From TrEMBL:
Residue positions, PTM 4-aspartylphosphate: D54
Any one Gene Ontology molecular-function term assigned to this protein's record: DNA binding
InterPro entries membership: CheY-like_superfamily (IPR011006), Sig_transdc_resp-reg_C-effctor (IPR016032), Sig_transdc_resp-reg_receiver (IPR001789), Tscrpt_reg_LuxR_C (IPR000792), WalR-like (IPR039420)
Keyword Phosphoprotein applies: yes
Keyword Phosphoprotein listed: yes
Protein source organism: Nonomuraea helvata
Listed name of the protein: DNA-binding response regulator
Record key words, sorted: DNA-binding, Phosphoprotein
Amino acid sequence: MIRVLIAEDMHMIRSALVALLSLEDDMEVVAEIERGDEVLDAALRVRPDVAVLDIDMPGLDGLSAAEQLSARLPDCRTLVLTGLSQPGNLLRALKVHVKGFIVKDAPAQTLTDGIRRIARGERVIDPELVAAALETGSSPLTARETEVLRAAASGIRTAQIATQLSLSQATVRNYLSNAISKVGGRNRIDAIRISRDAGWL
């Protein structure tokens, strides 16, 4: 029996996933989580074989949760569900030892087959995402530029970003200017949109 943890913040989708996996004779859903920052504690408690994680969750994104699982519970393999619009996330997923990366609108059998293959130790990556990731490429932003742009994406002002990251306001503006230029954005908002679509934030 494959023990599965599901982390998805949207109730209807989470319920649909639980219902789908409950139809499989060789799978048991042992935990349902709606926040990313609750994944690790739940996994340590129920010890799943496979964790199915949404990327966009409150508290902590799915890839950061996968990184925590890899460090604290390496026997638990992770499968990430994502939208095709953010292929750059695939590169980050591979860095944090995610074993499966499947688009949300894939057929149901793709998910169940993927869980079985991952439980056997295989890696399952949607070929469309691989192609899109290769086309998009890796992020052109430095770690600091990414950090500043991510802070800006939360809606806070330059002065608040400076305080939060222990930088001067001039330095924050320089990082934002560099980020806008590197991603080909027209302004800060455009750079955030481009970076999010590419999965660089």
